[in-house]
Amino acid sequence: MKRLASLLLIASVAPAQYLNPSRGLNKVTERVYVATGYALGNVIYVLTAKSIVVVDTTESPAAARATLEEMRKISSLPVSYIVYTHFHGDHINGANVFKGDGTRIIAQRNHVEEMAKYVMLGGYNRRLNAIQFGSALPAEKRGARLAIDARNPGERGYIQPDVLFDEEYRFEEGGVKFELYHTLGETFDHLMVWMPQERVLLPGDLFYESFPMLASPMKPDRPITGWAASLDRMRKLHAAYLVPSHTNPQAGEEKIDTILANYARAIRWVHDETVKRLNLGLPLAQIREEVKLPDDLASLPYLQPGYGTVPWSVNGIYKEYTGWYDFLPANLNPGPKAALSRALIEASGGSAAILKRAARETSPQLVLELTDVVLAAEPANREAQAMRAAALEKLGQSATNTVERNVYLVAAQVEKQ
Which of 188, 189, 158 is nearest to 58 (CA)? Predict the structure, then answer.
């Protein structure tokens, strides 16, 4: 059990709160409050006549406590329920702060299987989280960031759910009705919370103020078409308030309907345009170049590539529907990269010639690719290492995507060591 808890504290922490909402406990309605800016994820509090229902708990007991301290200025009622919208660590790892003797924890049934997969790949997930959230970087240089150090998580706050459901679960607490529905998207265990009396919709991570992370560079496939279908389902509720688990709440039925419609349309556009080009036999690199959002969607502030990106989504869709062979015979049974690199170096007159070409290159991406050739054949080449580190630094500093920034800057730091 201890091993499970330690792994789950840094479990696959998905959407980054890249807009960094200001820290505070924000009143949405007379019953609903959302704590933003304390951690990567939000904590949502629902006041009932006799207790508090908590939806999502952040990635850290320390952050969860800070939000609860503010909530205690408003109410001293006990916490009756905790709802996990999905298994990612920024939603489940502050649970022990809210758990009382009678508190029940609810999750969708696939939560158990998703957590088991995470534990199975614990070593890999620790590595990817450290890169994705820039744990080795100075705080001021990080893009996406956690309220904890992914390498040294400290206190463990995850508690296993005691209520699991398949497609829907309803309960009433203190005069307030809650309806929970299984909604595919960010994960296979994702759920949404609907409060019909309040007309408040809690979409978890199916909406946040960025183009969605339909395909994370280091994580498994996500149910992309299911994500769009879940958004369609949300629209039918005609919510007056939308309170996501990342970024700020939204108010106004018409505004929310427009947001959800645009989000779903953007997902389907990227999916359908990718599939169309797949059927035309285009290679992945060309599809990545060609698929763009229509101008009216690309200009929307909540569809900017701060967390997810269109090219990464294309990669994920391509991977979902195809095998690993890309129809290039050289890639069916590729030889060692070092052997190819040595042949290229020999053909070009030596590594010095490649590095000379890299030195006059203005594109840091091409510098990265050229130095990769040299380092595959000559891992200890200090000149190539320095040029590669500089290119990675430039790519990281210029990145607007928070995950991209961390990936490049962490790699640059490693190269300098």
Answer: 158
Amino acid at 150: A
Q: Which tens digit of pLDDT belongs to each residue from 178-224? A: 999 999 999 999 999 999 999 999 999 999 999 999 999 999 889 99
| 3-state DSSP assignment of residue 126 | helix
Alpha helical stretches, state H, 74-133: 89-92, 95-98, 110-120, 122-132
For the chain, what percentages of helix, strand and coil (3-state, to nearest 5) are there? 45, 15, 40
Residue from 261, 276, 266, 260 nearest 313 by CA: 266
Give yes or no: residues 85 and 200 share one domain. yes
Cα 396 from Cα 407, distance rounded (Å): 8
Question: In 3D, which of 272, 142, 269 has the Cα closest to residue 211?
Answer: 269
Other Cβ atoms within 10 Å of 299 Cβ, number: 10
> 42 and 156, same structural domain?
yes
Domain count, the chain: 2
- Tell me the percentage of the chain whose pLDDT exceeds 90: 83
The pLDDT tens digits for 394-414 are 999 999 999 999 999 999 998
Cβ contacts of 19-22, under 8 Å, gap ≥ 24: 19/209, 19/210, 19/247, 19/248, 19/306, 21/247, 21/248
Domain-ending residue, one of 245, 262, 279: 262
Q: What is the CATH number of the domain that holds 383?
A: 1.25.40.880
Q: 10 lies in which domain range?
A: 2-262
